[in-house]
Amino acid sequence: KIYKKGKISFRGIMINNDKIYLSYYKEIKKNCFNISIVGGSLDLELIKFESFFTYDECSKNMSNHTGGKMITMNDESFLFTIGDAQQFIDAQNDDSLFGKLLQINYSDKSYKIIAKGMRDTQGGIYNKKDKVVLMTEHGPTGGDEINSLKLDQFEDYANFGWPIASYGEIDYIIIKEKKFSNHKENGFKEPLHWFRGNSVAPSQIIYVDSLDTNTERNYFMSAMGNVPAPGRRSIHHLRFDASYNKLEYSDIIPIGERIRDIINIKNEKKVVMILENSP
User: Fold this and answer.
1) 45-84, pLDDT tens digit by residue?
2) Strand, helix or coil for residue 176
3) From start to end of 117-189, where are the E strands?
4) Which of 135, 191, 133, 134 is CA-nearest to residue 162?
5) Which phi and psi angles does 89 have, rounded to 5°?
6) CA distance 123 to 129
7) pLDDT interval class at 7 (50, 70, 90)
């Protein structure tokens, strides 16, 4: 029933123990969609997916700005990013799930909102050792971000500022709220890092300390980009300080193709990429 004529797209995949989950466009009513989750028992012969998580809201403009990243945390719950669905100010609306970060319970499917003010978070990882979540955010031109949220900040209801605060160009939307560049001075959480100049189109971010035992807090971030530009179609090697307050080291490994996703196979000391430009 997933496959039918219309606007259907998978956005994320997550495996936890013997279960597999997919986030996807769900048509809530005619030509109006949100990002929902289906789940099933992991079986390499046949998987029967059933609805796991959905909600009543929908958007007629959800061609992108979807989010849909599921981030494993522990055996009780996981994190789920929902984009603003191009209903920009809903990212600041406490009565809407658009533009939010949710923590969802595996067993009873209950959830709570952890953060708001998010545009389109497509990559994320929870570092159990450092007890911190890192998320990649598609910003407007010159405003792509890496956001961080420590475990002890989960109860603070962090606000990442979108669309009121952004370091990118947001002249293409009109909102009555005043727009800022600086986050902290205006009551919003600053990004851990943001990419000046051209958008790099970040996709996934992974923890790669296993590749180099001489340093800590190493991450690879993959980047896409419809056309080549500095920082796009590459892997960004990033290292953060011990408090996750600033970027200490950055290097770019050119790949030459859009990288949709990457995983770290720790025992092989290898990173596997999913590339898009070549079939």
Assistant:
1) 999 999 999 999 999 988 789 999 999 999 999 999 999 9
2) coil
3) 121-127, 132-137, 144-150, 158-159
4) 191
5) -70, -15
6) 19
7) low
To which H or E segment does residue 195 belong?
strand 193-195
8 Å CB contact between 109 and 223: no
C-alpha to C-alpha distance for 246 and 239, rounded to whole angstroms: 9
d(CA 249, CA 123): 20
Write the CB contacts of 179 (distance below 8 Å, at least 6 apart in sequence).
163, 164, 165, 166, 170
Q: Is 199 exposed, middle or buried (CB count within 10 Å of its CB: 0-12, 13-18, 19+)?
A: buried
- Over residues 127-138, the mean pLDDT reads 97
Tell me the residue ranges of DSSP E strands in 17-74: 19-29, 32-41, 50-53, 67-72
Distance CA 71, CA 123 (A): 9
CA distances from 48 to 19, 38, 45, 110, 129 (A): 11, 10, 10, 22, 34
Q: Where are the beta strands (DSSP E) in 208-246?
A: 218-223, 234-240
82 token code pair: 């929902």
User: How many angstroms separate the CA atoms of 160 and 212, rounded?
Assistant: 32
Q: How far apart are the first and last CA of the chain?
A: 26
